[in-house]
Write a structure and sequence with these properties.
The chain is built from 8 helices and 20 strands. The protein is of the alpha+beta class and about 350 residues long. The chain is globular. The structure holds adenosine-5'-diphosphate and magnesium ion (MG). The site of magnesium ion has 3 residues, from helix 1.
Length: about 350
């Protein structure tokens, strides 16, 4: 028998006020794996997490932990028996307990019986000398690390985290995300992390489940989700996108950037070619030579610089395209700040273009 997944969510739905806020969500998470439920606010992420935790009940569907049913149409194992750790944005520590007592709170025998484990866990987040300190003596980031360690102390086999870093300021956040991730990996915990921030999902997840209106619309490794979006909205969730419009005829679509293969789109169908700003190329070699076609990048189209801004790591240039007046955005590494009104030839990286039916925004 193959080992069952640590956590298995099978076709969960949750009905509220006449609609399904979760509509057929299925997921598995293995030990040592971080899966991110990523999606806009209100799409049903927290509801899904609460159902897994057992603090809410699904309308239909099943949840299994290590192959054992913890919830289905008839059974509902109480939260405390599911072996699940929880971490939320408002993670309040007990103010009247020391850091050590906070961490030992869920352990049999309290701090006295578990001092070694508590000190070891705190040491792993660089708080080994804070056992006797009180929460108010710690910074926000340090309190967050204590909360993480408190949730991990009873060795939950599954950790559910709901936007756990959103209360922290930007500078702290990356560091705490990284520390959290390494600790969770060391403990071999199966993690289901909820976030609405694509950067957080990209940074933390082994697998991203992109959620929209109660459904998972795409699932995969961060690299493949980013590079092979299922639709325009999935592409646009991760970055600014540019849209080049056209009509498909004979499985081909002509655009000012050349001809694109558009198989599967019926004759006359409006299509959108989606490309991220970093994949629009400014073709310096071609300046003055006109729109020559190249095999890899097709034809160049001319844009007039509308605005150029330095963003730190890169520069963002907005072009008004000569052919139809639409705005396209390009990012280029480092400093490149052409003057407003400068005409430049642009090409699209063909391997980074995605063709979708127009108006189908998911
Ligand atoms: P997310 O975490 O993705 O922001 P939620 O899971 O919190 O989304 O909510 C999804 C939808 O379900 C929202 O429209 C919310 O208003 C609705 N909802 C959540 N809990 C309840 C409830 N107890 N009663 C009615 N509607 C709810
Ligand atoms: Mg939520």
């Amino acid at each position: 028998m193959p080992t069952p997944p640590r956590l298995e969510i099978l076709s969960i739905t949750r009905h509220f006020d006449g609609r399904d806020v979760v509509a057929g969500v299925s997921l598995t998470v293995a030990p040592g794996q971080v899966t991110c439920l990523l999606g806009p606010s209100g799409c049903g992420k927290s509801t899904t997490l609460r159902i897994v935790a057992g603090v809410d009940r699904q309308t239909t569907g099943r949840i299994l932990v290590d192959g054992r049913v913890v919830a289905d149409e008839t059974r509902h194992m109480p939260p405390e028996r599911r072996g699940i750790g929880l971490m939320f944005q408002d993670f309040a520590l007990f103010p009247h307990l020391s850091v050590g007592e906070n961490v030992a709170f869920g352990l049999h025998g309290g701090l006295r019986a578990n001092r070694a484990r508590v000190v070891e866990l705190l040491a792993r987040v660089d708080l080994g000398s804070f056992v006797e300190a009180y929460p108010h003596q710690l910074s926000g980031g340090e309190q967050q690390r204590v909360a993480l360690v408190r949730a991990l102390a009873p060795r939950p086999s599954i950790m559910l985290m709901d936007e756990p870093f959103s209360g922290l300021d930007n500078r702290l956040r990356d560091d705490i995300r990284d520390r959290t991730l390494s600790l969770l990996k060391e403990e071999n915990t199966a993690v289901l992390l909820v976030t609405h921030e694509p950067d957080e999902a990209m940074r933390m997840a082994d697998e991203i489940a992109l959620m929209r209106a109660g459904r998972i619309v795409q699932q995969g490794a961060p690299y493949s989700i980013y590079n092979n979006p299922v639709d325009r909205a999935a592409a646009g969730f991760f970055s600014d996108i540019n849209i080049v419009k056209g009509f498909s005829r004979g499985a081909l679509t002509d655009t000012p950037f050349g001809r694109f293969l558009t198989p599967g789109h019926p004759d006359g169908a409006a299509v959108e070619i989606v490309i991220r700003p970093q994949h629009l190329r400014i073709d310096f070699d071609r300046q003055g030579r006109g729109p020559l076609a190249t095999p890899s990048d097709g034809v160049a189209a001319r844009g007039i610089v509308e605005r150029a801004r330095f963003m730190g790591r890169e520069s963002l240039i907005e072009f008004r395209m000569e052919h139809d007046g639409t705005i396209l955005k390009a990012t280029v590494p480092a400093v490149f700040l052409p003057k407003r009104g400068t005409a430049l030839w642009l090409t699209l990286r063909r391997d980074r273009c995605h063709v979708f039916p127009a108006g189908c925004q998911g």
